[in-house]
């Protein structure tokens, strides 16, 4: 019974986990075709309209609510102070008046996160000023048609990993243009099977493994396996309990029969035998 209880609790927590997972954002890796534009399952995202191309940051003075302000520029690197050179994200400690590079422009990668959706990731390794540090900035692309561009500091958690929300209409994916005039209305159109090939060579599709995805689909596979195992265990338990139940039913019937006998004969020996067969 204790093990059944444990299983019950496990199932409850598992279903909770499944609920959280199904609420999670679908992974849509984005393939860069410039330093700030990429294509994913939703379409094309291009941050060029909110990027400066004159060595200055488009977003600046973004506060963390304490003593730091941040500057950010997509697409092109900028310089700030003597420390931030070719930066994508630069931090200024306003009390110490000290600059830190959070991410260099040429380190940009797209990250598809089940928690945040699409993010642009920038990183830096700095030996100077001391102490040497690796910092990472995640700019979460928040599609907001009402905003041209607004950068908001979210958190530094864990330390040296900085999260920002970029609210922008340019963070919204533009669906690919229809290839033919009649194609605009066919949302769920299924193409006919391709004609039989006469020339060799299958069409090449881009390998998804080449994409930098930190929150990989492995977690989903593990979850699926877990569910499968639990289902197998559950089936086993159902079969087992049916067996045990029928066995008990039988023994109860036997007991009843024996009770009838002992009522007829009333001998102590028979009572002993009955007690032995009892669980
Ligand atoms: C990137 O892809 C988009 C749409 O797929 C296209 O419009 C754009 O011209 C491409 N840019 C570059 C630099 O290749
Ligand atoms: C930065 O923002 C603060 C308030 O958030 C403001 O007082 C200050 O003038 C701003 N500085 C610049 C350079 O824009
Ligand atoms: C920074 O990262 C590099 C390579 O990614 C690693 O070799 C180095 O030890 C890291 N430095 C610190 C201070 O974490």
UniProtKB/TrEMBL annotation:
UniProt keywords, alphabetically: Disulfide bond, Membrane, Signal, Transmembrane, Transmembrane helix, Transport
GO annotation, cellular component aspect: endosome membrane; Golgi membrane; trans-Golgi network
MRH domain segment(s): 34-174
Subcellular location(s) of the protein: Endomembrane system
Source species, domain of life: Eukaryota
Transmembrane segments: 221-247
Signal peptide limits: 1-24
PANTHER family, per database record: MANNOSE 6-PHOSPHATE RECEPTOR-LIKE PROTEIN 1 (PTHR15071:SF0), MANNOSE-6-PHOSPHATE RECEPTOR FAMILY MEMBER (PTHR15071)
Protein name stated in the entry: MRH domain-containing protein
Species for this entry: Patella caerulea (Rayed Mediterranean limpet)
Lineage, opening ranks: Eukaryota, Metazoa, Spiralia, Lophotrochozoa, Mollusca
């Amino acid at each position: 019974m204790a093990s059944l209880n444990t299983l019950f609790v496990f199932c409850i927590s598992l279903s909770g986990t499944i609920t959280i997972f199904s609420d999670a954002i679908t992974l849509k890796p984005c393939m860069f075709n410039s330093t700030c534009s990429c294509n994913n399952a939703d379409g094309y995202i291009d941050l060029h309209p909110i990027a400066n191309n004159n060595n200055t940051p488009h977003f600046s003075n973004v506060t963390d609510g304490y003593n730091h302000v941040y500057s950010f520029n997509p697409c092109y690197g900028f310089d700030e102070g003597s420390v931030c050179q070719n930066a994508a994200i630069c931090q200024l400690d306003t009390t110490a008046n000290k600059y830190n590079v959070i991410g260099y422009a040429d380190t940009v990668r797209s990250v598809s996160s089940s928690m945040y959706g699409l993010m642009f990731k920038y990183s830096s390794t700095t030996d100077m000023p001391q102490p040497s540090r690796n910092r990472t900035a995640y700019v979460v692309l928040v599609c907001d048609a009402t905003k041209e561009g607004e950068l908001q500091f979210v958190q530094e958690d864990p330390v040296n990993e900085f999260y920002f929300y970029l609210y922008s209409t340019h963070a919204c994916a533009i669906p690919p243009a229809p290839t033919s005039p009649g194609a605009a209305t066919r949302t769920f159109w299924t193409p006919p099977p391709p004609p039989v090939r006469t020339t060799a060579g299958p069409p090449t599709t881009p390998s998804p493994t080449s994409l930098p995805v930190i929150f990989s689909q492995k977690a989903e596979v593990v979850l699926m396996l877990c569910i499968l195992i639990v289902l197998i265990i559950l089936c086993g338990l159902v079969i087992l309990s049916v067996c045990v139940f029928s066995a008990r039913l039988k023994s109860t019937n036997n007991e009843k029969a024996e009770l009838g006998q002992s009522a007829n004969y009333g001998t102590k020996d028979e009572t002993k035998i009955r007690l032995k067969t009892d669980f």
